[in-house]
Amino acid sequence: MSAHTKLYEGKAKIIYPTDDPQIFLAVFKDDATAFNAQKRGSIQGKGAINCSISSKLFQELEARGIKTHFIDSPAPNQMRIEAVKILPLEVVVRNIAAGSLCQQTGLALGTVLKQPLVEFYYKNDQLGDPLLTRDRLFLMELATVEQVNKITHLALQINEFLKEFFQQCDITLVDFKLEFGLNSQQELLLADEISPDTCRLWDIAAGNDPNRRVLDKDRFRRDLGNVEDAYQEVLRRVLKAVERE
Ligand code: 5GP
């Protein structure tokens, strides 16, 4: 496995081919970026932590009948995954108003939404991942009507599981981003990762303290410090919750 064999390098992961064309190897990096890569840094141990959290969550979802790209994890920062073609969509599910929802609507941070909100963003760094309307999504043929309906259904199912799971970890799941891909049989699989890089996670024990409660990438985005500790803490609680099951 050498640098020149990589298939793709993203902001948080490198994807390598394997001897089996149906299987890729994802290597999770410690690199951290925010605000469309305008802010760059590194979080020590992040690759292994995010890979471990994602692996556990993907296995839990698989056990509940949700198909993911996860195969196994041969090393703490490595995941063997089914080869998929990623749809250029970022699927965001929100339970509580935060981040761009507050910025774009004026809703107060922390407003509990009456029902989960599922949103589609165009995964395109050059354009800054803009929010899509359904009509724009179809205009650009980013997915079919059937795929959008299926993704919406899956995103809500995944939210129900994750909300409950994180509750057991004494964590409030505020919002998160999912990506989906198609395998060689054109089956839709949950892909990418589910980690403190892609979720907003608030520590219930910290109450309403807007800084202390943050256990996710907002610590890096907002320079709150102790980023690595927060990620470690999420991993510790996830492992404990899985053990308890
Ligand atoms: P927002 O739209 O408020 O910035 O993000 C909503 C949720 O989706 C947050 O949990 C955020 O971490 C996640 N998210 C949205 N876009 C991205 C992205 O490009 N990369 C990552 N890692 N997470 C994202």
TrEMBL record:
Protein name, as recorded: Phosphoribosylaminoimidazole-succinocarboxamide synthase
InterPro entries tied to this protein: SAICAR_synt/ADE2_N (IPR028923), SAICAR_synt_PurC (IPR033934), SAICAR_synth (IPR001636), SAICAR_synthetase (IPR050089), SAICAR_synthetase_CS (IPR018236)
Domain SAICAR synthetase/ADE2 N-terminal: 6-237
Reaction equations catalysed: 5-amino-1-(5-phospho-D-ribosyl)imidazole-4-carboxylate + L-aspartate + ATP = (2S)-2-[5-amino-1-(5-phospho-beta-D-ribosyl)imidazole-4-carboxamido]succinate + ADP + phosphate + 2 H(+)
UniProt cross-references to HAMAP family, sorted A to Z: SAICAR_synth
Entry's Gene Ontology molecular function annotations: ATP binding; phosphoribosylaminoimidazolesuccinocarboxamide synthase activity
Keyword line: ATP-binding, Ligase, Nucleotide-binding, Purine biosynthesis
Gene: purC
Gene3D superfamilies reported for this sequence: ATP-grasp fold, B domain, Phosphorylase Kinase, domain 1
Record-level GO BP terms: 'de novo' IMP biosynthetic process; cobalamin biosynthetic process
Similarity comment: family membership: Belongs to the SAICAR synthetase family.
Biological pathway: Purine metabolism; IMP biosynthesis via de novo pathway; 5-amino-1-(5-phospho-D-ribosyl)imidazole-4-carboxamide from 5-amino-1-(5-phospho-D-ribosyl)imidazole-4-carboxylate: step 1/2
E.C. code: 6.3.2.6
SUPFAM superfamilies according to UniProt: SAICAR synthase-like (SSF56104)
